[in-house]
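Blinded run. Sample ID left blank on purpose so nobody reads anything into the name before looking at the predicted structure. Input follows.
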Amino acid sequence: MLATAPAPSAARSAARAASTAGAGAAANAVTPPAERRCPYCCADAPQEAKKCRACGEWLVRTSAGAAPAALRLLGWLWVGLTLLAAGGLWAAGRAARFWILLRATDPAISPLALDVALYGLLALVLLQGLTVGVALSVLSRLAPRRPRWWT
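Blinded prediction complete.
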């Protein structure tokens, strides 16, 4: 048999393999995208943007700050103190009811009248305290969020 030169398709495939090996190394290098997506409205924003121009949300990490955390803590403390005050009033009411049962000097003051007054006062204290505590917690959630570098 006669020796022949390699077919042109074999030469092309060898050249293609060499060029794809060089392109594969370049493709493995990570290049940062020129734009990123807003997590809230999915609009494209420049990579260095701090705020989305479509929806106005911050694209950087945000923090609510110290004031909302203090308000939330104050709300929970208020609720806790309200529950303690209601427990103290209930214990004092039980002691007063027991004292009235033992030493009923005035027939107008009956344990039933004391119970109505005591439970009305307890309901008032609990409603007021829980309302203020929940309102403080809700107010802490309404504080605007700012980026962490914002001073």
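Unblinding after everyone has recorded impressions. Residues 83 and 106 are 32 Å apart (CA to CA).
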